[in-house]
Please model this.
Amino acid sequence: MINSKMPVVYYGGDYNPDQWPEEIWQEDMRLFKAAGINIVTLPVFNWAKLQPAENVYNFEWLDKILDLVTQNGLHVCLATSTAAQPAWMSKKYPEMLPVNVEGKRKTHGGRVNFCPTNPEYREFSVKLARKMAERYQNHPALLVWHIGNEYGNYCYCEHCAAEFRNWLKARYGTIEELNRCWNMSFWGHTVYDWEEIVPPSHLNEMWLDSSGGYPRERTCFQGISLDYNRFMSDASMQCYLGECQAIKEVTPNIPITTNLMGAFKPLDYFKWGLKMDVVSWDNYPSAKDSPGMIAFRHDLMRGLKDGQPFMLMEQTPSQQNWQPYNSLKRPGVMRLWSYQALAHGADTIMFFQLRRSFGACEKYHGAVIEHVGHGETRVFRECAALGEELKKLEDILDSRIQAKAAIMFDWENWWAVEFSSGPSRDLKYVEQVEKYYSALHKRNIAVDIIPPDGDLSQYQLVIAPVLYMVKPGVAQNIEKFVAQGGTFVTTFLSGLVNENDLVTLGGYPGELRKVMGIWAEEIDALYPDVKNQIVMKEPLGDLNGVYECGMLCDLIHSEGAKVLAVYGKDFYAGMPVLTENKFGEGKTYYVASDPETAFIDVLITYLCDAKQLKAPLEAVQGVEITQRFKEKQTFMFVLNHRDDQVDIDLKKGRYRELISGREESGILSLPAKGVAIFQPIG
Ligand code: GLA
Ligand code: ZN
Model:
């Protein structure tokens, strides 16, 4: 349980009373209670108010609001407010402001606008966190600590450069080793002294490539750029950990978190997850995102801490302000997406924001209490109805998903795949992962998202789309899994490089060559209007005939693998495009190109069937079904993402539906956007 002091689903979110006169606070309390809210997150952006000058702290207003929320039966996710330093601080310590990738020192403003290695930032933020911990350690409302807010900025200042050199010394020991690992003979980059190393930026190795409508940082030197990302991810984490440590000394038993952002490229969240008491994240899909894309991010966040329940820290009740088109969440969608979070392992449903700001950019951002100021709105009514429902769901807390399928995801691989220009600008790592994830999701097969060095023993099927970078120990991890009977799938461009993006010589897919039983000789990149074909040699389950593929085509040779399909066109027509290799008790599959969705769907169906991975119930497309387990209890979530009513055959099962309290069996009719949570009876 996140905190056993309040054993219910936490429901509430970011509250900014400081933006409002005190008269409004009372009304807030009334409305929060009416909405079933039990937790408020505050003060997320109030450093300037908490510390008006270097040696002056002002907590009285916070005492007051904390007392008020406590009197009203609410609990608090207490934020340390360190995501936006006060203006006086930036002015007095200008080196606290970061230098951007263009080499320009930023000026004060915005938020998360600090250098993550700046000693004064670290000192002041830790000091504030400690003061808050000391002041509120025994506060009855305190449930969780929320540090900073959405970390993730990189800095390229002189101080970061110096810290980077120290970080590199610790990693490589000698300058010779660094030259070797970065392949510095290329373009005569050899360095002889640590001081010669400068951060990779737009002033030297890097540039922003926005081609194809997908902006990504490119670099001439992957070695240094990968290390800079690792270093920057660590540097932000050190900011987080500094505050954590100060707080832990005072309140060792209160869980600490910071709000993550799903598939957010700059930070290696697998490393962060290990250091967090509880993972929390902010879910802001666009109206066009598929249920699978949202589900993937929930599963990714759940995977950061070994499947432990996570917090949905933020979502909007209605609309956002920062997307190209900020559509309203249609009636029922906020509720449906809230339950989707629970269905994927969340134990909280929280919003940004409780009352809609009236000035600055978030005036356009939805809230539980809209600008009109009362509760007679569609959004408020929907929030209040959900609040009422969640009160009945405390049983699901701490229950876990039990997946037999996993997808490998790796931030370092993501960085590496997209740092190099070539072989195709259309290659997007997350999109590739989503394609395979979505094939499992559509079939309602539970999936864990795991790092490549994760424990594979509980899985039957592991898929690693574009496992370009094979870090030390990963090939062995995969070999062991397959030898013991697992099924492993990887795709084109895999096994090419080591953790420094140096090619594993002797033939692709490098360290995976043995387990895959193939050799990839060349890699072709196709123009978007050029396609090749996957021609099945014989049916494999329902996989039969000819499918389209494109973007990248590995030209592979079998080295023991069975050739299941060959290319249909071009000079490599007849070369393998889908192979199956027996390895120990298990099998591996190599998909040498980027296939059309239908191919992936049918392949995944075949592999799931072979391993007897089944959906909890049969349902039409667009109905999502997951299960959470706890001791002897099972909770089955059925979510209708469709715009029409569906009938679901409960077969012989008899269930109690937790939201309505009704007993259900036979055919269940679920309205458009409807939700049911079943517990088997008997
Ligand atoms: C983020 C932040 C919030 C708010 C929302 C708006 O998630 O954490 O402070 O700005 O975005 O969507
Ligand atoms: Zn810096």
About this structure: The pocket of zinc ion (ligand 2) is lined by residues 98, 115, 117, 155, 157, 159-160 (CB under 6 Å). The chain has 17 helices and 27 strands. The chain has four domains: 10-86+115-154+254-395, 158-227, 405-610, 623-680.
